[in-house]
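Fig. S4 source data, part A: sequence.
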Amino acid sequence: MPEGYNSLVGALKALEQDGTVLPMAEDEWNTRPDTVSYGTVRLDFEVDALHGDNVKQATAYEGSVDLFSLARSGAGWIGLITATLKNHCGGCWSLNSHTYERETNLFHWEWVFEI
């Protein structure tokens, strides 16, 4: 895994507000934990590479962060996730979608980032 990704995951897993840590997994969860909000983060694929002297010199990876919440406001986690992405990805991230999932009664935010 790229070092920037490991740093981002560590920061996301340490997100805390009012003494509560946001449950964050590095893969898809099959069942929802018994919390108001939880998240997932994953590295999806290599999006670009810089080659020189017949060797890969640098690589860019794309990933995503998802927040699932019973609260329409995201229970305060949206600002913390956004600030973490700004600190670790600079301007290389965007809010990709925000939906309401009727089957689970959860609000879902997805941010896409590049490292």
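Fig. S4 source data, part B ends here. The beta strands are 16-17, 20-21, 24-25, 37-52, 55-69, 93-101, 106-114.
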